[in-house]
Amino acid sequence: MRTLFVMDPLDRLNLAGDSTYMLMREATQRGWPTWWCTPDDLYARDQEGWARAQQVRTVPGAFERGETTDRRLGDFDAVWMRKDPPFDMAYIFATYLLEMAPPHTRVWNRPASLRSHNEKLFALSFPGLCPETLVSRSSARIQAFAAELPDRVVLKPWDGNGGRGVLVTRAGDPNLPAMIELLTGEGRHAILAQRYLPEIKQGDKRILLVDGEPVGALLRVPGEADHRGNLHVGAQARPGELTAGDLAICARIGPSLREKGLLFVGIDVIGGHCTEINVTSPTGIQEINRLGGTRIEALVLDAMERAAR
Predict the structure, then answer these.
(1) Which DSSP letter does residue 249 get?
(2) For 277-288, what is the mean pLDDT?
(3) Which of 97, 172, 280, 307 is least enclosed by beta carbons within 10 angstroms?
(4) Contact yes or no for 111/96 (Cβ under 8 A)
């Protein structure tokens, strides 16, 4: 399987925790010729998508880089879009170029689905799974929504990742209007306001799904100094058990993921509620492998091979 990874630059990766690195390492171990490039390296010529790509092999804790050449997307059996957000116009434009791959080249996750299914908003497509949520740029509307809630409210940008810009406040907080001004750019951008789930103190569960089926879970427990369940801001990784409620959520979401060509997805579950469906570059492979003795990267590439056949 000749495979191209569209991703962030190699020198920016934290190889001790990066999931794309694990997929590339598994491809190397299978003897698959592997290349990488950034979204900026994609271009179109006439009716074809192209990439300025570098061949690469993984070695323990590093990469061996080969020749950089211009390649048709049709030269690859599979292309992975693994660029981290922000989900901006540059990201969207990259999905247009990836759609110019010929039918025999499978692109994961499907570019049209990446565009159409925002990670913060996708969960709203499944009534009853999410906590109460408002999407708006209106300060008055957001403040009124906060006043309706029994406890606190979570404010977050719709296009961020890794917990960036996620704030917890409540109605009556004198800082609330300023927080809304800051996150909305004084009303220019919509944000999400969501009911605070106190179960976050027990952890934010990341569940990884491959071809719509759950393959492992990780519990990210916030530290004392930060409310966010994100590992890079101090949350602790603990084994995550897949409960009956978790499996019911996955069973509800899984068929839609398969239909939309979302092969590798991570969902976030807090207190029995699905708060996000991460489709761009879900993480958690290394942590779940260490805690659960799994090899999720192998399951992902197995599913990719089956789809190619």
Answers:
(1) H
(2) 96
(3) 172
(4) yes
Residue 126: inside a domain? no
Q: Which is catalytic among the residues 156, 195, 205, 260?
A: 156
State both tokens at 233.
């801001």
Is 201 noted as a catalytic residue in this protein? no
167 and 269 both lie in a single domain: no
Annotated catalytic residue within 120, 195, 205, 260: 120
12 catalytic? Reply is no
- Verify that 191 and 203 share a domain, yes or no: no
Residue spans of beta strands (DSSP E) within the chain? 3-6, 34-37, 42-45, 48-59, 62-72, 78-81, 106-108, 133-136, 153-157, 167-169, 191-195, 204-210, 213-221, 236-239, 264-270, 273-278
User: Residues of the chain with pLDDT > 90: what percent?
Assistant: 89
Q: Is 278 a catalytic residue?
A: yes
In tens, the pLDDT along 38-68 reads 999 999 999 999 999 999 999 999 999 999 9
CATH number of 151's domain: 3.30.1490.20
With contact defined as beta carbons under 8 Å apart, do 185 and 140 qualify? Answer: no
206 annotated active-site: yes
User: What CATH number does residue 214 fall under?
Assistant: 3.30.470.20
Please indicate whether residue 260 is annotated as part of the active site. no
List the CATH number of the domain containing 22.
Answer: 3.40.50.20
Burial grade of 255 (CB within 10 A; 0-12, 13-18, 19 or more): exposed
Element (H, E) at 200: none
Report the domain count for the chain: 3
Domain that holds residue 141: 132-196
Q: What 3-state class would DSSP assign to 79?
A: strand
Please check the confidence at residue 213 and state whether its pLDDT lies above 60: yes
